[in-house]
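Sharing a chain and its predicted structure for anyone who wants a worked example. Both blocks are below, sequence first, tokens second.
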Amino acid sequence: MKFTTLLSKLSLLVLVLCLSCNSEKKEAPSTKNYVKEIHSFANPNESVIKHLDLNINVDFDSETINGIATYDIENTNAKEIILDTKFLEIDQVTADGATTEFSLGEFNEQLGQPLHIKISNDTKQIAVTYKTTNKTEALQWLNAQQTADKDHPFLFTQGQAILTRTWIPIQDSPQIRITYDATVKVPSELMAVMSAKNPTQKTTDGRYSFKMEQPIPPYLMALAVGDIVYKPISERTGVYAEKTLIDKAHYEFGDMEKMVVAAEQLYGDYDWDQFDVIVLPPSFPFGGMENPRLTFATPTIIAGDRSLTSLIAHELAHSWSGNLVTNATWNDFWLNEGFTVYFEIRIMEALYGKDRANMIALISRQDLDEELEGFENEPEATKLKLDLEGKNPDDGMNSIAYDKGYLFLRTLEETVGRDTFDAFLKSYFETNAFSTVTTEQFVAYLKSNLLEPNAVTFNLDEWIYQPGVPSNQAIITSDKFTNAENTLKTFLESDTIDTSLTTDWTTLEWVHFIRNFPETMTSEAMAKLDKAFDLSHATNSHIAMVWFEQAINHDYHGNGVDETIESFLTTVGRRWYVNTLFKAFKRNDRVADALAIYKKSRQNYHSVTANTIDELLDYKP
């Protein structure tokens, strides 16, 4: 055999072996120098979890989850491993199959309790037998009447930011990535789904098995249980929902595959195999949650015309920024959300054009202005890099991270040019895939891979570490918004409205139109607009929310708006909407009215929403 032929065959063998290696599950990074984590008791530099095997039973009668969490671990001659827990009952702990000593430390209102587990320097596995309690914050148990079909109860989890520790004992830090398997037992008439490979049909015995092969941070562990069905959109996209919602959801999210394709064309392959969405009951506290393979979504985005599905583009974008490359700590939260807003708007531009993208960007800019005004007396809170020492990470989950982060990236794009910036972002995602990044690491990467090679000077310190928005910001304009402003101006001047001018308006134009009502707007003017467009009974949730806010601001009570606001707040648990309206009540000295509604609606809210409104209204449940 010729040497060249032998070399060729050896090269082919190496290539085959490499391809085989690449097809195996992705491993979480080995034990490394983890940065200090102020929101976790864990000490991962000494001992860290790597893989979870979860075996649990979901009991709707007692509204508890019980079972065993078994972890493969790595340690460096450590004598103990520390997990995060909050409101959990710990029954037993084993190390490599043998019962071992454990203790729960002092309770902290924000962080819960550290679970100290005795191990030896060669311990490879620990197992914790535990049970949730009625204080568990991540879980929301819903009775049948709180669902769309009203036939069966429902359960869903919400782990971000540090609530996973309230339903699983875990090292609850975003910089600790794990793979997991799970076995979940639920009532036979219900289906369970997770942020993992999922079933598409119910089993006969209510037992479900799950596998997440890519390493994820704990806040992306997610579970939903209900009487749901699945309907595919493409081979790798589809939707779960209750029966009465499935067809509406399937239509609403019909462009999901196109979104995935557009995203891949921008910044590389989608690395999570499947992108599905589950529509949850209306008490879900967020618009969406980017749980890998299965985004959790609020039903408030089902408008009937796909006008609110930029939220789906946002959660898809998290598959790169957040899930693939994750903020190392919650002080770096803007790295998740600023990038995702930027990516979301680029996806929307690719599919629906620059006009729609710029309208979304301008709404984002308006949200940022409102947030900056709200933090007028707390300028430190308007920095991108946060200091959340002693605070709940939820305190940093506001428009600063999302919209100032977006504006920073858009300004960078306009400074260096779109093609150059796209190449940089694609490289950033590929280089840091399945790992975590601090703000300082990102700044170093940005300098060495974008600014210095292109001889660009940019005021990074001012954007990232200083309050407010620097003067060198991207200026975003929209002719469609200008037309909406002119329509409002004409109405205010003439006291008449030409309804034909609004026939083709999108949700974004309506939102901009309503948001720009002047402080001098009268109840009579509100009534005329309400009569022309029946805004008090808008079926589009975003339009309804901004209209209700203006009704409160302008003391408008016509067309049954007060009853409609109460109905909205009693049935919708999306924190953004709920918080906006209760803030309006408080701002307009109507706290008594707010509390009267809140006492009726609080039982329908997830703890994430309830905790926010408790603080806002100084309510003690």
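Comments welcome. Confidence is low (pLDDT under 50) at residues 1-25, 27-31.
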